[in-house]
Amino acid sequence: MEKNYAVTRHTFDEVIVPTYAPSAFIPVRGAGLNLWDQQGKEYLDLTAGIAVTSLGHAHPVLVDTIKKQAETLWHVSNYYTNEPVLQLGKALTEATFADRAFFCNSGGEANEAALKLARRWAHDKYGLQKARIISFVNSFHGRTLFTVSVGGQPKYSEGFGPLPGMIEHIPYNDIDAAHAVMDDDVCAVIVEPVQGEGGVMPATTAFLQTLRELCDRHNALLIYDEIQSGMGRTGKLFAYMDYDVVPDIMTSAKALGNGFPIGAMLTTNEIAAAFTVGVHGTTYGGNPLAASVACEVMKIINTPDFLSRVVSAGEQLKKMLEGVVAAYPQVFGKVRGKGLMLGLVMSDACLGRAKEITAMAEKNGLLLLLAGLDVIRLVPPLIITDEHIRRADALLRQSVDEWIKTAG
């Protein structure tokens, strides 16, 4: 067998299951906010791997951490524990509301664990009838059968039935709808403090307060999906800290490992007790390699100076985007979001055309994301500088100008 294969974007179409439609270029190297493709073209990356590489590509401290851990201990199975995962558990519980942590490999797995825990807790405490889960329209919670069912976007669950039952979706930020749907058969409400895939939509404080009050009244658990909004993305370690509305269970992933696969479910002692030995598990979750990287990520992000810079950088990036809206009112309607999780919303006249602009931006060396058809999503590495923002401004305006000329 050949040791190395010459591969191109066409190779994807030949050998990879077509669950994605990746761009025409293949990134081969990254440093900070910069990416280079096979031809050596440079890109300014404001995607962070969809809010994952929050400390940028190839962060030197994390590279060194992986090297050292790889030379020490990779995997021992859950017949044993290991020092890095215990250190990470201590770091996360000391920094949050939680007493206990469960580690897995992804955000979908973290949400799967959270939802299973909620149902198990309710079953043990109140019986079979308390199993209904409330979620929100346009939410996204992962790709397992349970999490796509709980997620509020039917396109991800269609064709996979029969789906898990007793799941109900209501409009996001709708307090009246929340009151109408809650009853004593609800075991959990799961919500993103800032909807990511659903259009970069922040929750209102009153909405989250209402959910907390309703869960308390009906003995249900409040679950926060902070997989995209957490780990400093909004200017706090986790977004719930900015709202001051505390959940019962919270999930984290994405930026927790800066690209090394890891997920976490955090909860209290009382709720965690519903997961006894053998009830739930994972082969790779909490392995020393992933946990050691996440420990270093926590050390870097969870400092007052770092989080303060995220706030100021978010304000600058938002101001830059508002300038773009003002310059192109026929194209863009507004900017929304929190911290460095921002959405550039298309105008009514240009609904459905966000992808055309991100494609033009990519051609010009600026990488942006989508959040649906009508929102351009910006979730850059948290280490973004003023110079990066100036470069992004120039490239975005250039791309919009060129798109206007070709769009007709």
TrEMBL record:
Main location: cytoplasm
Cofactor notes: Binds 1 pyridoxal phosphate per subunit.
InterPro entries: Ac/SucOrn_transaminase_bac, AcOrn/SuccOrn_fam, Aminotrans_3, Aminotrans_3_PPA_site, Class-III_PLP-dep_AT, PyrdxlP-dep_Trfase, PyrdxlP-dep_Trfase_major, PyrdxlP-dep_Trfase_small
Segments traversing the membrane: none
A GO term from the CC aspect: cytoplasm
Protein's UniProt keywords contain Nucleotidyltransferase: no
Enzyme class, first EC level, given as a word: transferase
Binding sites annotated in the UniProt record for pyridoxal 5'-phosphate: F140, D225, E226, I227, Q228, T283
Cofactor(s) demanded: pyridoxal 5'-phosphate
Pfam families according to UniProt: Aminotran_3
EC numbers on record: 2.6.1.11
Domain of life: Bacteria
Modified residues (N6-(pyridoxal phosphate)lysine): K254
Entry keywords, A to Z: Amino-acid biosynthesis, Aminotransferase, Arginine biosynthesis, Cytoplasm, Pyridoxal phosphate, Transferase
Positions with a binding annotation for N(2)-acetyl-L-ornithine: R143, T282
Record-level Gene Ontology MF annotations: diaminobutyrate-2-oxoglutarate transaminase activity; identical protein binding; N2-acetyl-L-ornithine:2-oxoglutarate 5-aminotransferase activity; pyridoxal phosphate binding
PROSITE patterns reported for this sequence: AA_TRANSFER_CLASS_3
Other comment: May also have succinyldiaminopimelate aminotransferase activity, thus carrying out the corresponding step in lysine biosynthesis.
The family this protein is said to belong to: Belongs to the class-III pyridoxal-phosphate-dependent aminotransferase family. ArgD subfamily.
NCBIfam families in UniProt: arg_catab_astC, argD, PRK01278.1, PRK05093.1
Quaternary structure, from the entry: Homodimer.
Protein name per the record: Acetylornithine aminotransferase
